[in-house]
Task: inverse folding
């Protein structure tokens, strides 16, 4: 019924009507509604001739690659990536097919999503999306009936699901559609310094700067590269947007402004920790200790302004003006 390669705890299944590709059950993409390979409801559905779909469960390292244009995919180096792994197709000439691989360094930011490229769709493990544990999509499974009348046939029934590295997947994707897989810095999850008690932000006050990635390269308005704080397995886990003043770490799904970067550099926090009020107090204390001249200059400027606006100074200015006018 279900191939032995797919009888795994990190795959979830859904029921699909016979001869169709899409599920019709409401909430099918919610992980809580997913079925295990040995679920009686799934097995009974298959015995009645129904189709079934699958998606990687939360925490899985499986990737499902839906190749819609084998010629373009192979031209981008895709065959080297999936040539020996578990594959299946509903087309006699295999110009379209699906491949399953494992990838131990899947970027966390992609979980719960899929990435549609022109010749390829990648289905990532389920993840939290808007507060719910969801799948980003599903693939119709082997043995199901395609609308073209063919069954999804396995290339090699003894083939295993083989491992790949994310960097190799990304290189193929880059050749198919440059920069597409580089998700933009999100608008949420960015820590910025509070503004209480100070006229200027400390990044302005002390000339703090964003930290640049190691081995940086441009990507639109952003600069990509490896984290200078904890390194990177892929060389691509950090993005900096100078226009927005944001340093974003995709490993921890957290961003910082220049103050946060400086706090990490000083060891006050680690990358991934929040920049809280307490952190801010420790940070400003260290900065004032390291750069006392900034505080002294501010005090001198304050006294100068006070002198210019004191009642005595205003009276003296008036007297000088009157006396000057009477001459």
Result:
């Amino acid at each position: 019924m279900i191939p032995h390669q797919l009888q795994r705890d990190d795959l979830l299944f859904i029921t699909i009507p016979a001869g169709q590709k899409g599920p019709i059950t409401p909430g099918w993409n919610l992980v809580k509604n997913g079925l295990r390979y040995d679920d009686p409801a799934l097995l009974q559905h298959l015995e009645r001739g129904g189709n079934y779909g699958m998606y990687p469960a939360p925490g899985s390292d499986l990737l499902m690659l839906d190749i819609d244009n084998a010629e373009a995919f192979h031209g981008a180096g895709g065959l080297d990536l999936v040539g020996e792994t578990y594959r299946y197709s509903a087309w006699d000439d295999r110009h379209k097919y699906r491949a399953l691989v494992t990838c131990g360094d899947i970027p966390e930011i992609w979980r719960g999503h899929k990435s549609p490229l022109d010749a390829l769709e990648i289905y990532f493990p389920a993840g939290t999306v808007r507060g719910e544990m969801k799948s980003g999509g599903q693939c119709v499974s082997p043995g199901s009936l395609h609308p073209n009348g063919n069954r999804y046939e396995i290339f090699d029934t003894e083939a295993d699901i083989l491992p790949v590295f994310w960097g190799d997947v990304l290189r193929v994707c880059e050749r198919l559609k440059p920069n597409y897989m580089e998700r933009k810095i999100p608008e949420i999850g960015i820590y910025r310094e509070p503004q209480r008690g100070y006229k200027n932000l400390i990044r302005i006050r002390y000339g703090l700067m964003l930290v640049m990635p190691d081995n940086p390269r441009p990507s639109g308005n952003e600069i990509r590269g490896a984290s200078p704080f904890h390194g990177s397995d892929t060389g691509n886990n950090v993005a900096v947007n100078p226009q927005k003043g944001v340093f974003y770490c995709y490993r921890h799904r957290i961003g910082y402004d220049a103050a946060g970067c400086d706090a990490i550099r000083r060891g006050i926090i680690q990358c991934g920790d929040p920049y809280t009020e307490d952190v801010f107090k420790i940070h400003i204390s260290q900065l004032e200790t390291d750069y006392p001249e900034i505080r002294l200059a501010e005090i001198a400027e304050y006294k100068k302004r006070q002198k210019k606006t004191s009642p005595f100074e205003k009276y003296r200015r008036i007297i000088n003006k009157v006396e000057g006018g009477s001459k």
User: Anything to note?
Assistant: DSSP finds nine helices and 18 strands in the chain. Residues 308 and 317 are 10 Å apart (CA to CA).
